[in-house]
Each structure stands twice: as C-alpha cells, then as structure tokens.
C-alpha cells in the first residue's frame, strides 16, 4: 500500500437512470437529494461503491433500496468523471434500469421522496445528471433495436397498441400502426391470449405475451419494423 499513499483519493459512485412506461409514455424516477451540496434538489438515485462490492452490485443495491425490487434489468451506459463535477473528485458509473411503472408505483421508498416524471418534462437536475440521461437514452435505443429489452417495460401481457406506443416513445418516431402490427404478428414472436383489454374501447384489443424462445432465433427481426432513426434524442 506504500506505493499508493501519494495517489489521488477518488471516490467511486454509481447513478441509476430508472425508466418506466405507463402504457402511453416513458417516465423517469427521480429523488430529492438528501445531502449537501444541492440538498433537496432533484437527482438520479445514486450511491458510493463499497469496498466489498462490484459497481454492478452497488447499482443493484441502490435500486433495491429505492424500489424494493430485485433482479431488475440494468445496463451500463457510461462513466462520468470530469474534474469539478462535485466538490470532491467523484467518478460515477451510470446504469439504466427498466421497470414496468404501472406495476410498481406503490412500492417506492418515501425516505427519498421518489417521484415519477415524464422523461421529456422532468425538473432540472443536479451536476451532470442530464448528460447521464442522454447517455442512457442513446444506449437504450441502440440495444432495443437488437434485443428484446423494451419488453422489460411492459407487463407480462400487453397489447399491440402498447408495443407501438412504446417504440414510438423510445425512438421519437411515428409508426404506421397497421403495417407495424401486420409485420409484428407475422413474425410469430407474440403469443395471442384469449382475453382483451377494453379500457380504451368497447371492442378492445387482444392481449399478447412474448415468445422468448422464438425471439432468440429471430433476434434481429425488430430492425426491419422501424423506420430510419437518428441516434440523437
């Protein structure tokens, strides 16, 4: 340890961009910061990495502390460590987490004054947390074109209009709903259930669930359902 005694004392932290889908739009879960500086201002949920844990375990611990959820889909989306971002040198590893917001609204920790906000209309955030959100959205769009991660935002049973709305929100595009539905159904990726969601119309829309085994065989299939999209959100 003698070799390190004159080296910088940098703190390692994690921050979580927690995203949810309410059936119509994307939302982000924010908290009131409980310590100085920037006390009582809106922030991403974060914390320091303990000596005995990896950054991934630290991010899972932070998320569970806020939501009481385990085994949530999380993905590393960047490292932020510019000098001066906080009073003391702190390097933060950022993760985004995907949650079915409609199912888990009732289990949020009151300790942190956690609240869901529309992703594009959230309050001003501390430090470089806006940049962290941008990094998370960029990574989400890239990964979602290749893998079925957006289904983490949906309940186990969902409708075609819900899927379409979700992809429109993530990619900031307007889909041809009829064409999108036709291609999606013809892929065999969805299993139709014998029940309908009649919350939006008397006729209703059939519920589906994802055929995960078939999706693994056709993992690139969603690419052809989406119009050209920019990496910028």
From TrEMBL:
Mention any Pfam family matching this sequence. WHD_NrtR
An annotated Gene Ontology molecular function: hydrolase activity
Keywords of the record: Hydrolase
- Superkingdom, natural source: Bacteria
Domain (Nudix hydrolase) spans 11-139
Protein's name in the database:
NUDIX hydrolase
């Amino acid at each position: 340890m003698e070799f390190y005694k004159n080296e910088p004392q940098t703190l390692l932290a994690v921050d979580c961009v927690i995203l949810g889908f309410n059936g119509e739009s994307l939302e982000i879960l924010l908290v009131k910061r409980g310590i100085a500086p920037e006390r009582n201002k809106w922030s991403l949920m974060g914390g320091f990495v303990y000596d005995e844990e990896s950054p991934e375990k630290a991010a899972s611990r932070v998320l569970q502390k806020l939501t009481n959820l385990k085994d949530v889909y999380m993905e590393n989306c960047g490292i932020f460590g510019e000098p001066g971002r906080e009073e003391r040198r702190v390097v933060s590893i950022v993760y985004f987490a995907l949650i079915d917001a409609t199912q888990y609204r009732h289990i949020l920790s009151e300790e942190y004054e956690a609240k869901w906000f529309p992703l594009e209309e959230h309050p001003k955030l501390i430090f470089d947390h806006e940049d962290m959100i941008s990094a998370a959205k960029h990574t989400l769009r890239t990964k979602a074109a290749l893998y079925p991660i957006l289904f983490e935002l949906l309940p186990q049973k969902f409708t075609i209009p819900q899927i379409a709305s979700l992809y429109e929100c993530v990619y900031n595009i307007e889909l041809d709903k009829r064409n999108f539905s036709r291609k999606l159904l013809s892929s065999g990726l969805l299993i139709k259930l014998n029940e309908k969601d009649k919350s939006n119309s008397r006729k209703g829309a059939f519920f589906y669930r994802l055929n995960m085994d078939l999706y693994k065989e056709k993992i690139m299939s969603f690419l052809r359902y989406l119009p050209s999209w920019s990496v910028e959100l």
